[in-house]
Amino acid sequence: MTRNLITTKKRIETVAGYNEILRDIRSLLEKATYQAYKIVDNLRVQTYWQVGERIARGELEHKERADYGEKVVERLTIDLKMQKSTLYDMSQFYKTYPILHAVRGELSWTHYRILMRVSNANEREFYEVQTIQNTWSTRGLESQIKSNLYQRILKEGKLSIIQPLPYYYRENRMYPWEKSPVGLIICEYKGKEEVHYALGGLENKIFVAEYKAKLPSEDEIGRGLKNIRSAR
Predict the structure, then answer these.
(1) CA torsion angle for 103, 108, 113, 117 (degrees, to 10)?
(2) Is 94 helix (H, G, I), strand (E, B) or coil?
(3) CA 17 – CA 9 distance, rounded (Å)
(4) Ramachandran quadrant class, 170 (left: phi over 0; alpha: psi -120 to 50; beta: rest)
(5) Residue 79 CA to its chain's centroid (Å)
(6) Cβ atoms of 160 and 193 closer than 8 Å
(7) C-beta neighbour count of 150 within 10 angstroms
(8) What is the crossing angle of helices 84-96 and 18-61, to 10°?
(9) Count of CA atoms in the C-beta half-sphere (13 A) of 75
(10) Do 49 and 103 form a contact (C-beta atoms < 8 A)?
(11) CB of 45 within 8 A of CB of 103?
(12) Is the separation of the CB atoms in 94 and 55 below 8 Å?
């Protein structure tokens, strides 16, 4: 029996290119599993938003009763055999994100449960963007929130702009982003302008690189864009 196993193993090992085939197939199966999970989770996020919207609509229709929403949740807990906390989360989800199109498909339901704890809308959006661009897990997101990342950036100056840019400016030249940019943060600190580039990738460990430089003028930006277009 042992001899047969050894013979079979040797036969497999001598198949040309087998390890590459095995690696590629494993990769395909892992991607399919991940994509299937994402589809299911996106559907759950949308469904939970719709459930929250329906509860909120009932509350609005019966706004004369202050405890109407609470009574509805209590009944739903029994009839749907769901946890009360989950139903409250659905209701809060809709109230936090009243526009469905504002719900980002890249984020999971667990991400949103963490984000809903952030009461400040600007801070919450900041963490949404950074989670997507840095591919933070739910544990990573929670860790960044607990470390007060947003507040630490604000302490460096007056945060005025956070938005993705197709180009970045450094050493008097403009460069197109080769990969997905995380964004440009413009601050005013001690009377000087500072530019912060939040970096994505890089093992998700490097978060902000600072370039303390004079910001380019509109003419410089225009010339840089023109040069990039002409180089294509």
Answers:
(1) -60
(2) helix
(3) 15
(4) beta
(5) 34
(6) no
(7) 21
(8) 80
(9) 7
(10) yes
(11) yes
(12) yes
Tens-digit pLDDT profile for residues 130-175? 999 999 999 999 999 999 999 988 887 645 444 444 444 444 444 4
- Give the residue from 171, 177, 152, 163 showing the smallest Cα distance to 216: 171
- What span, in angstroms and rounded, lies between the C-alpha atoms of 144 and 165? 23
Give the closest residue to 167 by CA, choosing from 123, 220, 106, 104: 220
Q: What are phi and psi of 159, to 5 degrees?
A: -70, 125
Reported pTM: 0.61
Give the whole-angstrom CA distance, residue 195 versus residue 6.
63
Q: Would you list the domain boundaries of the chain?
A: 1-103
CA distance 91 to 71: 13
Q: How many residues does the chain have?
A: 232
113-147 b/e (C-beta count within 10 Å ≥ 16 → b): bbbeebeeeebbbbbbbbbbbbebebeebbebbee
CA–chain centroid gap for 43, Å, is 17
Segments of the chain with pLDDT less than 50: 158, 160-214
